[in-house]
């Protein structure tokens, strides 16, 4: 039995890697060790609250935190790579280390994570011919990104006195592709840039997934909810047993129920895994929030966009509340701490309930017409061609049509509100109705189509697909040409105009002592919400999510502004509530 250790071609002044592994398990500097980790994503937590959430993780009994690195969060446009403020991954890692936590970093170009485009920038997926392969264009972009990211992680490794003890090569690759050379490239991309700590891969519990997702030199780990016995059967010779994602809850799509998993169910799987000698990372320990429009989507016969909340029924709630599951996990982890666990932090402080009137400012068409034209082309441009990440894009042209004509949008991604002059004709959706009747008498007018991207697909064969109008717009069999494009602002649009059923509205709250809060929008149909200029996310009467989390650092003493842009129907008020409402529930335990 030989331990597998990290190697590097660099002449680095450092000790050996913290963790080694063989079929008997993990060792930390030669002593038996278990990774007892929980997932907390820095990009889903306000940076002023990183320390609070990590302290709660440590109090749960975790000795490690794992986080993905969302490439598109750092490089929204090509070459503009940011590591400041909310994107200061080094600060997050140092805070974890200062609290005594190890760090498991998952910096793969692809993260899934129910995050927009699986973490791959839209400008990459709009250009590369084959994502997550040895396609030259994709690798060139990944290598340039790694040249900026990995040097920041190297000095934070345990070998240099930092908290990083493990790094993931790729994420669930066995459920996507079979390019073994790509996995080898990713492994060497880490090693050649100075990564010396333990490498891992992570895949689901089928033989095919493990075969195509593993690579020599990286410890194979698993992702599942209740598959301990199956994972043990699939464990590769010489590898320690670890579940890199033990699903303690699940995410939600709009139009579904809120997924939950009982504390008892989680405890049973934890005990089974720990009794088998395994290590684990609970996914999620604290889910956080898909602030802005960072939510991803799935596609299983139809588009399934993920909601703004990423609470995931985690032990540490979206606002930091500790629930029954937290105490169940703490009890399971306690024996590995000789009974000496950090104290449990106090509950979060929440604002008292309050209601404010929502004052309409302008219709949706007013907002469109106040936005400058970004480009004109014969055919509609996609979001990628326009350089638009997500949000709303308006397409406008003048049309003439005969009596009884129908309008069709070919390749609509994802939802469109259609106007002729000032009349709203209807709403079309990608996997629903994509055509509608024009006024029966025929005529002419200004056609405006407001398209909304509901979330970029983060998993499966449709990863990386485009947004906007992909095919074109037809009246009967004839293409409509001559389009003006307007990219609606995502920094709290401001304009005045007519007051209608849809559009822009503002509510104000006076707050003496800022604290966490939950916002609700009774009567509203489908909108985006800004708090003091920060885009919190979306609400949608489709449910299940009712309330949006508004963290304390976004509030200020005095007057606070909530701005809403609803494409369908504005409500009359905005409410501050003390507790979240995620909608009706259903049990989910995974496989």
From TrEMBL:
<keyword id="KW-0378">Hydrolase</keyword>
<dbReference type="InterPro" id="IPR001944">
    <property type="entry name" value="Glycoside_Hdrlase_35"/>
</dbReference>
<dbReference type="InterPro" id="IPR017853">
    <property type="entry name" value="GH"/>
</dbReference>
<dbReference type="InterPro" id="IPR048913">
    <property type="entry name" value="BetaGal_gal-bd"/>
</dbReference>
<feature type="domain" description="Beta-galactosidase galactose-binding">
    <location>
        <begin position="507"/>
        <end position="560"/>
    </location>
</feature>
<protein>
    <recommendedName>
        <fullName>Beta-galactosidase</fullName>
        <ecNumber>3.2.1.23</ecNumber>
    </recommendedName>
</protein>
<dbReference type="Pfam" id="PF21467">
    <property type="entry name" value="BetaGal_gal-bd"/>
</dbReference>
<dbReference type="Pfam" id="PF21317">
    <property type="entry name" value="BetaGal_ABD_1"/>
</dbReference>
<feature type="domain" description="Beta-galactosidase 1-like first all-beta">
    <location>
        <begin position="380"/>
        <end position="486"/>
    </location>
</feature>
<comment type="similarity">
    <text>Belongs to the glycosyl hydrolase 35 family.</text>
</comment>
<dbReference type="InterPro" id="IPR026283">
    <property type="entry name" value="B-gal_1-like"/>
</dbReference>
<keyword id="KW-0326">Glycosidase</keyword>
<dbReference type="GO" id="GO:0004565">
    <property type="term" value="F:beta-galactosidase activity"/>
</dbReference>
<dbReference type="InterPro" id="IPR031330">
    <property type="entry name" value="Gly_Hdrlase_35_cat"/>
</dbReference>
<dbReference type="InterPro" id="IPR048912">
    <property type="entry name" value="BetaGal1-like_ABD1"/>
</dbReference>
<feature type="domain" description="Glycoside hydrolase 35 catalytic">
    <location>
        <begin position="30"/>
        <end position="332"/>
    </location>
</feature>
<dbReference type="InterPro" id="IPR008979">
    <property type="entry name" value="Galactose-bd-like_sf"/>
</dbReference>
<dbReference type="InterPro" id="IPR019801">
    <property type="entry name" value="Glyco_hydro_35_CS"/>
</dbReference>
<dbReference type="Pfam" id="PF01301">
    <property type="entry name" value="Glyco_hydro_35"/>
</dbReference>
């Amino acid at each position: 039995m030989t331990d597998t250790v990290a190697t590097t071609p660099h002449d680095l002044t450092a000790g050996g890697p913290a963790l080694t592994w063989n079929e008997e398990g993990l060792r930390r500097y030669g002593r038996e060790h278990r990774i007892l980790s929980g997932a907390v994503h820095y990009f889903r937590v306000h940076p002023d609250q990183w320390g609070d959430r990590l302290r709660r993780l440590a109090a749960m009994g975790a000795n490690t935190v794992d986080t993905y690195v969302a490439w598109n969060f750092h490089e929204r446009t090509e070459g503009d790579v940011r590591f400041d403020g909310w994107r200061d991954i080094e600060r997050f890692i140092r805070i974890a280390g200062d609290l005594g936590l190890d760090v498991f970093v998952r910096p793969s170009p692809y993260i899934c994570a129910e995050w927009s485009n699986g973490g791959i920038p839209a400008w990459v997926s709009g250009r590369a011919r084959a994502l997550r392969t040895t396609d030259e264009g994709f690798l060139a972009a990944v290598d340039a990104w790694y040249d900026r990211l990995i040097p920041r992680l190297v000095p934070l490794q345990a070998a240099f006195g930092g908290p990083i003890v493990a790094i993931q090569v790729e994420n669930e690759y066995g459920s996507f592709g079979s390019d073994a050379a790509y996995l080898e490239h990713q492994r060497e991309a880490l090693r050649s840039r100075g990564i010396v700590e333990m490498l891992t891969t992570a895949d689901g519990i089928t033989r095919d997934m493990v075969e195509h997702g593993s690579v020599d030199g990286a410890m194979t780990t698993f992702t599942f909810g209740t598959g301990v016995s199956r994972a043990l059967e699939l464990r590769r010779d010489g590898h320690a047993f670890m579940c890199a994602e033990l699903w303690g809850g699940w995410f939600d799509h709009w139009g579904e129920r809120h997924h939950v998993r009982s504390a008892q169910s989680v405890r049973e799987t934890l005990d089974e895994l720990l009794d088998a000698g395994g290590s684990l990372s609970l996914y999620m320990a604290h889910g956080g929030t898909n602030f802005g429009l960072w939510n991803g989507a799935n596609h299983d016969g139809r588009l399934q966009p993920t909601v703004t909340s990423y609470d995931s029924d985690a032990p540490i709630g979206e606002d930091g509340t500790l629930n029954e599951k937290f105490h169940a996990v703490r009890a399971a982890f306690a024996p590995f701490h000789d009974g000496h666990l950090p104290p449990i932090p106090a509950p979060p402080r929440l604002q008292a309930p309050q209601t404010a009137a929502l004052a309409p400012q302008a219709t949706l068409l007013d907002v469109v017409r106040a936005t400058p034209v970004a480009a004109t082309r014969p055919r509609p441009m996609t979001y990628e061609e326009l350089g638009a990440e997500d949000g709303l894009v308006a397409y406008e042209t003048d049309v003439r049509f005969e009596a009884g004509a129908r309008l069709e949008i070919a390749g609509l991604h994802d939802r469109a509100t259609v106007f002729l002059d000032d009349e709203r004709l209807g709403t079309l959706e990608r996997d629903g109705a994509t055509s509608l009747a024009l006024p029966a008498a025929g005529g002419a007018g200004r056609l405006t189509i407001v398209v909304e991207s509901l979330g970029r697909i983060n998993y499966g064969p449709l990863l990386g697909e485009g947004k906007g109008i992909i095919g074109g717009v037809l009246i009967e069999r004839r293409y409509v040409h001559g389009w003006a494009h307007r990219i609606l602002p995502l920094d709290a649009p401001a304009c005045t105009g007519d007051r209608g059923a849809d559009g822009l509205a503002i509510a104000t709250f006076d707050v003496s002592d800022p604290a966490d809060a939950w916002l609700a929008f009774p009567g509203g149909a489908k909108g985006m919400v800004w708090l003091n200029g920060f885009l919190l996310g979306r609400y949608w009467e489709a449910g299940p999510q009712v309330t949006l989390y508004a963290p304390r650092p976004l509030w200020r003493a005095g007057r606070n502004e909530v701005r809403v842009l609803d494409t369908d129907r504005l409500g009359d008020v905005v409410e501050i509530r003390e507790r979240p409402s995620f909608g009706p529930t259903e049990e989910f335990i995974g496989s």
